[in-house]
Amino acid sequence: MGGREERRKGGKEEGRKGGRRKVGWGKVGWDGASLLVYWTFLFYILMEKLFWRLFLGAVCMLSGVGFHAFAQSNAGTPARIEVNFDKTVGPMKPVWAWFGYDEPNYTYMKDGKKLLTEIAELSPGPVYVRAHCLLCTGDGTAALKWGSTNAYTEDENGKPVYNWAIVDSIFDTYVKRGMKPLAQIGFMPKALSTNPEPYQHDWKPGDPYNKIMTGWAYPPKDYQKWADLVYNWVKHSVERYGQKEVESWYWEVWNEPNGYWKGTMEEFFKLYDYSADAVKRALPTARIGGLNIAGTSSPGGKKWLEAFLLHCAEGTNYATGKKGAPLDAVLFHAKGSPKLINGVVRMNMSPQLRDIQTGFKSVLAYPQFKNLPLIVGESDPEGCAACGMATNPSNAYRNGTMYSSYTAATFARKYALADQYGVNFLGAVSWSFEFENQPWFYGFRDLATNGVDKPVLNVFRMFGKMSGNRVEVKSDRMYPLQMVLDSSIRGQQTEIGALASKENKKAAVMLWNYHDDDLQGAAEPVELTLNGINSKKIKITEYRIDREHSNSYEAWKKMGSPQNPDKGQIVALEKAGQLEKMSREPLLEHKKGKTVVKIALPRQAVSLITLEW
C-alpha cells in the first residue's frame, strides 16, 4: 500500500513539474504509451465518421441532393426555404379540383350532398366529378363498389326503354352546385350484356377483388343498341341542361379496360369508336376521351395506352370506317403502393408518379395529341377506396395526417412533371369521396366519415386558397423529383417542402413535413424567406393541419372513439374537421429587402401561409 501511494504521489509531483515519464489524470496514471493508444483510437473514430460523412455527401451530390438534406437531424438548425415571387414557373391550375368514387347513388344521399357542397366551395373554378356505374341496371340501391341507374332496359320485344330519372338526380346534384360531370359511359346494362348472369356482385371488404367482375363488365351483344343508348343520353343531357353546359363537361368511355373489361382489346376499341361517334352525333362540340387505364407504367398498362393512342391516330374506326377516332382528352390512372412493415405503414409515391410520367411521355409520342388535355382519371396512394384498414392494415394511413401530408407532397410533383414535359395537364382525380352508413373512421379512402370532414379534405381547402401563377421555390430539405420517382421519400430526414403561388397583391405558400414512414415527430424550425414582395406591410395568416389542428380524427379518439356519438360530439367533430387558423401569426422579420417568416412544423403537418400587401 505504501509503495503505491509513493508512486502515485511521485507521479503527481512529476506532473506538476512537467515530468516526461508519467502523466496524472484524475486518480489514474497514464504513461506516454497509453496516451498514444488513446489518441490513436480517438483519431480513428473521428476519421471513420468523417469518411462516412464524405461518402454520404458524395452520394447525395451525385444524385443532385445537398448533403445537408440527409445528414443527421439537428433540431436547432432550421429548414431553409426560399420563395421568389418574381420568378413565375407556370399557372396555378386547379388540377386538384377533381374527385371521383365507385358508388354513384351516394351522390344524392344525405352525407353525399353535404360533402359535394363542401367540395364545390373549395375552388373558385368548377370542380369536376367522376363516378362509376352510371349505366348499370338496378333500382338505385347503393352498395360498396356498386351503383345503378336503370337507364336502359328492354321491353318484351327487345325494344330499348330509356329511363333517365336516377342519372338526372346524380347530374342535377352536380350542376346545382356549379360542378361539372366527368361523365363515364359505363358500365354495361344487363339487357345488353353478352354474359348477363350473375349481374350485381355482392363484394365486401376482404373478398377477392375479382369477385366484382360480373355481367356488367362484358361487351354489348349489339353495338348499335349501345351507340343508340349513348346518343340518347347525350341528347337528353343537352335538352335538360343546355348545350353550353354540356359542352363544358368531359365524357369518357369505361374504366380500366385492362381490368374492368371482359372482352378483348379490339372489342374495347370498337366500344370506344361507337361511343365517341354517338356522342359527337348528339353534340358535335362535346368532348370525349379515354381510356382510363390502370397501372399506366406497368408493361400491360403501357401496352394498352400506346395501342389506344395508335388506334385513335391511325386505326380504322369500327363505327365509321374512317381513319382514327375522336379524342379530345387522354385519361389514365396513377396509384401508389403502401405496405405494412413491422407494424408501421410505409407509403410509396414512386409508382404513382411513374404512372403519371409514363402517361405524359406516351401522349407526347404523337405530335397530333401533344396539346390535348391530360387527366389522371384516378390518382391515389393505392387502389381500393372501399378496402378499410380492418381488412387491409396498410390502409391505416387514411384517417390522420399521413394522408394529408402525402397529398400535399405528391401534387407538388404532379405540377413538376407537367412542367418538365410541357404537357397540358388538366386535372388529377382523387378517387376519394364518402361512404354512407358505415362505421366511423373505418379507414376507407374518403374525404369525410358520417358527414365529418377528415384531415385530408383540408389540404384541398388549402389548395383552393392558391391562385394565379406558381412561383419558384427552393428548399434545402426537399427531395429532387428524380429521387422521388426512383425511391419515394425515405431518406434519413423527413422532407420539408413547399409550393407557392402569387396573384396580384396576394400570395400563398404551402409547406409540409413528410416522410414515407407513418410516424409522428416533434416540430422542426422552418425559416421561410420571401423575395419579390416590395412591401413591409404584409398581412400574414397561417392555416395548419397536424395532430392538434384541422383534425377530426384526433378529436374523435380523445372522445374515446365513439361509434354512436351524440349530437354534441358530432357538432364538436364537425368543427374539428374544418380548416383551422393558427391562433398566432408567424414571426416576421425584414432583412436586407427580404421578408423572413419563422414557424415550427411537426412531422406530417401541412401549413398554408397566406400573404396580402
TrEMBL record:
Keywords: Glycosidase, Hydrolase, Membrane, Transmembrane, Transmembrane helix. InterPro entries: GH, GH39_cat, Glyco_hydro_39, Glycosyl_Hydrolase_39. Residues 80-576 form the Glycosyl hydrolases family 39 N-terminal catalytic domain. It comes from the Bacteria. Residues 1-17 have a biased composition (Basic and acidic residues). The chain crosses the membrane at residues 28-46. Residues 1-20 are annotated as: Disordered. The keyword Transmembrane helix applies. Belongs to the glycosyl hydrolase 39 family. This is Glycosyl hydrolases family 39 N-terminal catalytic domain-containing protein. It comes from Dyadobacter linearis.
